[in-house]
Design a protein that fits this description.
Chain B: This is Xanthine dehydrogenase. Chain B: Keywords: FAD, Flavoprotein, Oxidoreductase. Chain B: One of its GO terms (molecular function) is FAD binding. Chain B: It comes from Peribacillus glennii. The complex is a heterodimer of chains A (777) and B (280). Chain A is of the alpha+beta class and 777 residues long. Chain A folds into three domains: 166 residues, Aldehyde oxidase/xanthine dehydrogenase, a/b hammerhead (Aldehyde Oxidoreductase, domain 3, Alpha-Beta Complex); 330 residues, 2-Layer Sandwich (Aldehyde Oxidoreductase, domain 4); 149 residues, Aldehyde Oxidoreductase, domain 4. In chain A, strand 9 and strand 10 form a beta hairpin. In chain A, helix 12 packs parallel to helix 13. Chain A starts with 16 loop residues before the first helix and ends with a helix. Chain B has three domains: 52 residues, Uridine Diphospho-n-acetylenolpyruvylglucosamine Reductase, domain 2, CATH 3.30.43.10; 108 residues, Uridine Diphospho-n-acetylenolpyruvylglucosamine Reductase, domain 3 (2-Layer Sandwich), CATH 3.30.465; 99 residues, Enolase-like, domain 1 (2-Layer Sandwich), CATH 3.30.390.50. Chain B has a five-stranded antiparallel β-sheet. In chain B, strand 2, helix 2 and strand 3 form a beta-alpha-beta unit. The longest helix of chain B has 20 residues. With 280 residues, chain B is an alpha+beta fold. Classes of the chains: A alpha+beta (777), B alpha+beta (280). Chains A and B meet through helix 2 and helix 17 of A and helix 11 of B.
C-alpha cells in the first residue's frame, strides 16, 4: 500500500489529459456568452508612419456597428515604461500595430467595419535593427521619452533609442585581459520571431454596473493584469476580476498585457457590454508581442591553457517599437550575461533598444537562449583559437559551488547544479571521444556540436504564490492555485506533491484548472519555470496546515495526543497502533457524534510562499541576488550535412540537465523535449523576414514554419539530480531549459562542419551557402 | 472567417454547372467554380478572393474519379491530392502531389484546384506537362479534349464558364522511369525553392520545374540542352539554365541567386538518377 501512494518521480497522467485528448477542453474563445459584442482590429501596414487622416464615416453606415475606437489619445500603457498607446494615435511604430478597433454585434460585421475604414499614412524613416537604432544619427522612435511615466529601476536614455541599459561590472576587465594570452571576439545577430502557440490570444472584457471590470483572457499573468489596471486606469485591484481558463500554449507570449486593455476600452465605449477580441493568426504573429531579437558582440580572454579570465559583452536587444517586457528581458539577459562559467572579470552593457519592429514579450528562456547563442558561439571560436576541444574548455571553466555569478552571487551546491557532471554525461552519451567530424559517402559529413546552459529566474523580489485546499465530504481535496495551466502540467505536479505529503490517492485530489482572481489565490505569473517551486512550497505549507487540523480534530475522538497521530491512506491513525483510526471523510466536514452533536466544519486551509532574500540589482555594477537557484545543463547535436548543397538533417539532439529532482518523469521529459523542439526551430528555421521598410513579409504559417511533427530528430535526454534545498523535494526549474542551448549547439555543429564561424539565425541552408561561398546578402 | 456571404449551388451534371455559371453571370454575380474550397477559405478571409456565388462541382458524376479507360489513365479534376497519392496509379504524379501542402490540406485540395488555383506553384501540373496529357474541358456543349500545351502557358487559360473536368494521360507514361524532387528553404515543410519532375522517354529526359519563376514551366530549349549526351552533366545543366523562361524569384523562401544554385544541383541530381552514374 505504501508504494502506491509515493507519487514523486512517477509519471502521473495529467489532470487535464481527458479534456484535452477528447477535444472538450475549453479555451478563452470557446466561452460564448449571449450579448457579447465582437471587436476587430485595423492594423498598420507600415512599420513607421504618421497617421495623416482616418475616416470612420463609411463604417457607421453598416448595420450592427456598436463602436469605433481610434484617433484618440488613450492613456499610455506599458509594463515598466508607459510608452505605448493601446490603439495608435497619430503615429504607428511597427507593422501590425493596432490603428483602430470596430466593435459590432458579430465578428463578421466588425471585420466589415474594419474594411470600411479609410486611413492615409505618411511613411517615416525606419529603424530596422537594434544596431541601426544604436547609431548616433538614427531616427528616434520616442522623442518624448522623458515625459513617459515609468517604474523604478528602469534606465532609459533620453534622445536615443535606448529604452533601458543594465550594466554588469564584476572584477576589473582591463586586468582580465592583461591576464589573458588569447582573445576571441565574435558578433552575432538574429531578428525577432514568433511563439506560434496553437491558441491565438483572446480577451473578453466587461464593466459591471458597479464598476467592476471582469476579464476572461488567455494570459500567463491574470494577477498582474489586476495590478496594471490600477497603474493604467486607476482601477483598484479589488475591482478587477480576471478569469483564465486553460491556455493553449503560451511560451512567454501571453505574459504581456495587450488585448485585455483594448477589450476594456471597447467595453467602455459600449456602456460596459462584454466585448471579445480574438486574434487572427496574422495578428497573433505581428500585432501581439513577439520573440525578441538580438545583436551582440562578445569578447573573451583566456590563458593559453584555456582558463577564462575576462568577458566583455555588448548586448543590443531588439525590443521593438515599445519597451513593454523587453526591459525586463534585457535585465534577465544581463543577470546571466555569460555562459555558466567561472569568470572573474566581466563587463557587460545590456541595452534594450527601440526599433520599428513588432515589440517583444517573454519567450521561453527569457533572454537566455538569445544570450547563450552569442556567448556559446564565442566559446567555440575561442576553443578553435586555443586549439582545444570545445567541451574540454567548458569543463575546465564550469561554474562550481564557491564561484560567483556575473551579479556576484556566491553559489553553493543548492543554488547551482552540477555542471561538470552534466558535461561528462553529455560526452559519454554523444560518444564525444570518437571525434567531432565523421566523413560519410556522397559528400556528406556527420558532425557533433555542443554547448552549456544555465538560467535563473529573475522574479520581482516580492513575487508570491498561494494555494487553498478545501475538503469534500468524501475526504477528497480541492486544490486551488493561481498557476495557469499553459500546457506544462504544473497543476498535475502540484497534485502529486499534495498526494505525496498527505499520503492520499492522487484521484482524491481535484485540481481547479480555471484561474479566477477573485477566488483563487495569487500566483505572481505563470512564467520562468517557477510554478512547481513556488506553488509547490505553498502546497506543502497548506498540506501541513491540513494535517495539523485533521490531527487536532482526531485527537479528541481517538483520545490520543495529536503528536502521536499520523495522516495517510485516507485516515488519521495512532502511529504505534494503527487500529485506532478514523477516516478523513468523517473528519474533514466536521465530526458528527452518534447523537448528532457535531464539532468543526469543512476544513479549509491555505499556504503561501515568497522567495526570501531576493534583491534588486545595482544600477552601476549589477551586483545583487536576483534569483533563487540556477539550473545548469549541457546540450549537443549531431547533424548530417550535405557539403555539396548545404542541406542538413539533425539526427540527434541531446540534453543533460540538472533538474534537482524529477517529480514527474514523463512530464519532465515532455517539457525538455518540447523546449528542445522549439529551440531547434528557432535555431534552424523560424524568423520574421523584414523588408527594407521594416514590414514582416511572412506573418502567416504558410511562410513562417515551426517544427512539424516528423521533422524532429531523435531526442536523448538525461537528468542529473542535485537538490535545490529550498524547493519541494529539491526540484529545479525545467520548463525552459531544453530550449536554451539548441541554437548555439546547432551553430557550433554547423560551424565545425563547414570550417566557418556562423553568426546569424536561423541557420537555413542559404545562409550556410552564402557564408561558405562569401556571397553577400 | 470569410467576411462576405455567397450563394452556393451543387449541380449534378456538367450542363447544369455551366448553365448555373452563366445564370449568375447574367445576374452580374461574380461566380466561381469550387472544388476543394481551400483557396476560398484561406484567401477569402484575407480579402484576396471574392465571390457572390460558388458552384460546387463535386456532385458531378465521375468528376472525382480515377480510372483507366482504353489507352488512358483518366483523373477527374475533382480527385483530391490524397486520393491520387493513395491510388498511386501514376507514381510520378503521386509522389509530386504528396509533397504539396500538408496532409490535412491534401485531403481537400483537388488536382483541378491545384493547377488552376491562385497560388502559383501549382506543382501537380509538372507531371502533366511532361506526359503531354489531354485536358477534358467542360463547356456548354460538353467535354472538349485539348492537349495541355494548347491550354497552358505559365497558367491554365480557360474561357469564362469553362472548367477542367478530367485529365487524360497516355498509359505509356505511367510506367516510365521518373524522378520528382522538391527542395525547400529548410527541412520537409513549406513551399518549394525548386520542384523538379522529370521522366526518361526513349532515352530523352523531359523535365518541368516549379518554384523558380512565378509560374511552373516546361522548356523544350532546356530539355534540348539537358539531352546533349556528349557533354558533362554540369555543362548540360548550365546551358539549360541560360534558357530560363522568366525572371527568377527572390522572396522569403530564398534569393534568386540561391534558387539558381539549388536548381542547378537539383537538375544534376535528377539527371543522375535517370541516367545512372554513367550518364547514359
Amino acid at each position: 500500500m505504501k508504494n502506491e501512494l509515493d507519487y514523486i518521480g512517477k509519471s502521473v497522467i495529467r489532470k487535464d489529459a481527458l479534456d484535452k485528448v477528447t477535444g472538450e477542453a475549453k479555451y478563452t474563445n470557446d466561452f460564448q456568452e449571449a450579448g457579447t459584442l465582437h471587436a476587430n482590429l485595423l492594423i498598420s501596414p507600415y512599420a513607421h508612419a504618421n497617421i495623416v487622416s482616418i475616416d470612420f464615416s463609411e463604417v457607421w453606415k453598416i448595420p450592427g456597428i456598436k463602436a469605433v475606437l481610434g484617433d484618440e489619445p488613450y492613456p499610455l500603457v506599458g509594463e515598466e515604461i508607459k510608452d505605448r498607446s493601446p490603439i495608435a494615435y497619430k503615429r504607428v511604430r511597427y507593422h501590425g500595430e493596432p490603428v483602430a478597433v470596430v466593435v459590432a454585434e458579430t465578428p463578421i460585421i466588425a471585420k466589415r467595419g474594419v474594411d470600411a475604414i479609410k486611413v492615409s499614412y505618411e511613411p517615416l524613416p525606419v529603424v530596422n535593427s537594434p544596431r541601426e537604432a544604436f547609431q548616433q544619427d538614427a531616427p528616434l522612435l520616442h522623442e518624448d521619452m522623458e515625459s513617459y511615466e515609468k517604474q523604478e529601476r528602469v534606465y532609459p536614455i533620453p534622445n536615443t533609442n535606448i529604452a533601458n541599459l543594465n550594466k554588469i561590472r564584476k572584477g576589473n576587465i582591463e586586468q582580465g585581459f592583461m591576464e589573458s594570452d588569447v582573445v576571441a571576439e565574435f558578433t552575432i545577430s538574429f531578428h525577432p520571431s514568433d511563439h506560434a502557440a496553437m491558441e491565438t490570444r483572446c480577451a473578453i472584457a466587461e464593466i459591471r454596473p458597479d464598476g467592476t471590470v471582469i476579464f476572461t483572457t488567455s494570459s500567463q499573468a491574470p494577477f498582474a493584469l489586476k495590478k496594471l489596471m490600477k497603474w493604467y486606469f486607476g482601477i483598484e485591484p479589488g475591482r478587477v476580476i480576471v478569469k483564465t481558463p486553460i491556455v493553449g500554449g503560451a511560451y512567454g507570449g501571453k505574459a504581456s498585457i495587450q488585448l485585455e486593455v483594448i477589450a476594456y476600452l471597447a467595453s467602455k465605449a459600449t456602456g460596459g457590454r462584454p466585448v471579445k477580441l480574438f486574434n487572427t493568426r496574422e495578428e497573433d504573429m505581428i500585432t501581439s508581442p513577439v520573440h525578441i531579437g538580438l545583436d551582440a558582440t562578445v569578447k573573451l580572454g583566456a590563458t593559453r591553457d584555456g582558463m577564462l579570465k575576462a568577458a566583455e559583452i555588448q548586448y543590443l536587444f531588439d525590443g521593438g517599437a515599445y519597451s513593454d517586457k523587453a526591459v525586463d528581458i534585457s535585465r534577465a539577459g544581463a543577470v546571466d550575461c555569460t555562459g555558466p562559467y567561472r569568470i572573474d572579470h566581466v563587463w557587460c552593457n545590456c541595452y534594450c533598444m527601440y526599433t520599428n519592429h513588432p515589440y517583444a514579450s517573454a519567450y521561453r528562456g527569457y533572454g537566455h537562449s538569445e544570450v547563450l547563442f552569442a556567448f556559446e558561439r564565442t566559446m567555440d571560436v575561442l576553443a578553435e583559437k586555443l586549439s582545444m576541444d570545445p567541451l574540454d574548455l567548458r569543463y575546465k571553466n564550469a561554474i562550481l559551488p564557491g564561484d560567483t555569478t556575473p551579479t556576484q552571487v556566491l553559489l553553493d551546491s543548492s543554488r547551482v547544479g552540477n555542471l561538470p557532471l552534466c558535461i561528462k554525461r553529455l560526452k559519454e552519451l554523444m560518444k564525444w571521444g570518437e571525434g567531432q567530424i565523421n566523413e560519410m559517402d556522397g559528400g556528406k559529413i556527420r558532425v557533433k556540436g555542443a554547448c552549456c546552459i544555465w538560467k535563473t529566474s529573475t522574479f520581482d523580489p516580492d513575487a508570491t504564490s498561494g494555494v487553498i485546499l478545501t475538503f469534500n465530504p468524501d475526504g477528497s481535496i480541492n486544490l486551488m492555485s493561481g498557476v495557469v495551466e499553459i500546457g506544462t502540467g504544473t497543476k498535475t505536479v502540484l497534485a502529486q506533491i499534495l498526494a505525496e505529503r498527505m499520503k492520499i490517492d492522487i484521484n482524491m485530489i481535484h485540481v481547479k484548472m480555471l484561474v479566477d482572481t477573485q477566488t483563487v489565490p495569487e500566483h505572481w505569473k505563470t512564467v520562468g519555470s517557477r510554478g512547481t517551486f513556488m506553488a509547490g512550497r505553498a502546497v506543502l505549507a497548506a498540506a501541513n496546515d491540513a494535517i495539523r487540523q485533521l490531527k487536532d480534530r482526531a485527537a479528541c475522538i481517538l483520545r490520543a495526543p495529536a503528536e502521536d497521530l499520523q495522516v495517510g491512506y485516507g485516515k488519521v491513525y495512532v502511529a504505534d497502533n494503527p487500529d485506532f483510526s478514523i477516516d478523513i471523510k468523517d473528519l474533514a466536514y466536521g465530526y458528527t457524534f452518534p447523537n448528532g452533536n457535531t464539532i468543526g466544519g469543512q476544513i479549509i486551509v491555505s499556504g503561501n510562499y515568497t522567495i526570501p532574500h531576493m534583491t534588486y540589482i545595482d544600477p552601476e555594477t549589477g551586483k545583487g541576488d536576483p534569483g533563487p537557484e540556477w539550473t545548469v545543463g549541457a546540450q549537443g547535436m549531431e547533424v548530417e550535412l550535405d557539403t555539396r548543397n548545404y542541406t542538413y538533417k539533425i539526427l540527434k539532439a541531446y540534453s543533460v540537465i540538472d533538474i534537482g529532482k524529477v517529480l514527474n518523469e514523463k512530464a519532465a521529459l515532455g517539457q525538455v523535449m518540447g523546449a528542445m523542439s522549439m529551440g531547434i526551430a528557432f535555431g534552424g528555421r523560424e524568423t520574421f523576414v523584414f523588408d527594407d521598410y521594416g514590414r514582416v513579409l511572412n506573418p502567416q504559417l504558410r511562410t513562417y514554419r515551426p517544427l512539424h511533427y516528423g521533422e524532429q530528430p531523435e531526442y536523448i535526454i538525461e537528468f542529473v539530480e542535485t537538490p535545490h534545498l529550498a524547493a519541494p523535494y529539491g526540484a529545479r526549474g525545467a520548463g525552459e531549459h531544453g530550449l536554451l542551448g539548441m541554437p548555439a549547439a546547432l551553430g557550433n555543429c554547423l560551424s565545425s562542419a563547414l570550417g566557418v564561424q556562423l553568426n546569424k539565425l536561423p541557420l537555413v541552408p542559404e545562409q550556410l551557402w552564402r557564408i561558405s561561398n562569401e556571397v553577400n546578402q | 472567417m470569410i467576411p462576405f456571404n455567397f450563394q452556393y449551388s451543387k449541380p449534378q451534371t456538367i450542363q447544369e454547372a455551366v448553365r448555373q455559371f452563366y445564370e449568375y453571370n447574367r445576374e452580374n454575380k461574380k461566380a466561381f467554380y469550387f472544388s476543394g474550397g481551400t483557396e476560398l477559405i484561406t484567401l477569402g478571409r484575407l480579402n484576396l478572393v471574392y465571390a457572390d456565388a460558388v458552384i460546387d462541382l463535386k456532385g458531378i458524376h465521375e468528376y472525382s474519379s480515377i480510372f483507366f479507360y482504353e489507352n488512358y489513365l483518366v483523373i477527374g479534376g475533382g480527385a483530391t491530392l490524397t486520393a491520387i497519392e493513395e491510388a498511386n496509379v501514376f507514381p510520378l504524379l503521386g509522389k509530386t502531389a504528396s509533397e504539396i501542402a500538408d496532409r490535412t490540406s491534401r485531403n481537400k485540395i483537388t488536382i483541378g484546384g491545384n493547377i488552376c488555383g491562385q497560388i502559383f506553384y501549382r506543382e501537380a501540373i509538372l507531371p502533366l506537362l511532361i506526359s503531354d496529357c489531354l485536358l477534358g474541358i467542360s463547356e456548354a456543349g460538353g467535354i472538349v479534349y485539348q492537349p495541355i500545351h494548347k491550354i497552358f502557358n505559365k497558367q491554365i487559360h480557360l474561357k469564362e464558364g469553362e472548367f477542367i473536368f478530367s485529365i487524360l494521360i497516355d498509359k505509356m507514361y505511367v510506367t516510365m522511369p521518373f524522378v520528382s524532387i522538391k527542395r525547400r528553404k529548410q527541412w520537409d515543410v513549406g513551399y518549394p525553392l525548386v520542384t523538379v519532375a522529370a521522366i526518361k522517354k526513349e532515352n530523352l529526359i523531359r523535365m518541368a520545374v516549379s518554384g523558380v519563376c512565378p509560374f511552373p514551366f516546361r522548356s523544350l530549349e532546356m530539355e534540348k540542352a539537358l539531352n546533349e549526351k556528349g557533354l558533362p552533366v554540369e555543362e548540360r545543366v548550365e546551358t539549360a539554365l541560360r534558357s530560363m523562361p522568366g525572371p527568377v524569384l527572390s522572396d522569403v523562401e530564398g534569393s534568386a541567386e540561391y534558387r539558381l544554385f539549388v536548381l542547378k544541383n537539383t537538375m544534376i541530381d535528377a539527371i543522375g538518377e535517370l541516367e545512372g552514374e554513367r550518364g547514359v
